[in-house]
Amino acid sequence: MPKAICALSLLKCSCGTVPTPFIVLPINGVTTTGLPAGNALDTVPFLNIIPFGMCTTSANPTVAAAGGSPMPCIPVTPFPWSDTATKVKIKGVPSVTQKSKLQCLWTGSISVEAPSQFTVDKE
Prior knowledge:
This protein is mainly beta. It has one domain. The protein is about 5% helix and about 20% strand. The protein has one helix at about 60-65; strands spanning about 10-15, 20, 30, 35, 55, 70, 90, 95, 100-105, 110-115. The strands form four sheets. A four-stranded antiparallel sheet has the order 2-1-10-9, with no helix packed on it. A two-stranded antiparallel ribbon has the order 3-4. The protein has a two-stranded antiparallel sheet with strand order 5-6. Strand 3 and strand 4 (about 35) form a beta hairpin. The longest helix is centred in the middle third of the chain and has 5 residues, at about 60-65.
């Protein structure tokens, strides 16, 4: 069973240079290991998805304008997380798991590098 993804799980982007923490606000009312759990709609740039250092893809207009040189990451994540939980929902929305992916408009694939949930309940 994949682990639920909650606040402070480390995310990585295939076009970014550094991993960053997943930010989940406590508004959903669901926690795992004491941290707010994320759902498929937790995709807001600069709120849930923090920049990944420098962006390296020329699909990003600022990188293209710089002749392919890496430029500061500005995530654009207009779609929900994919490969989410099939049975577990948070506020009616599928929860994010360690196998989930998020697509950035600039062709980056965002995945979970390290979940912050370290234990799984047996119940």
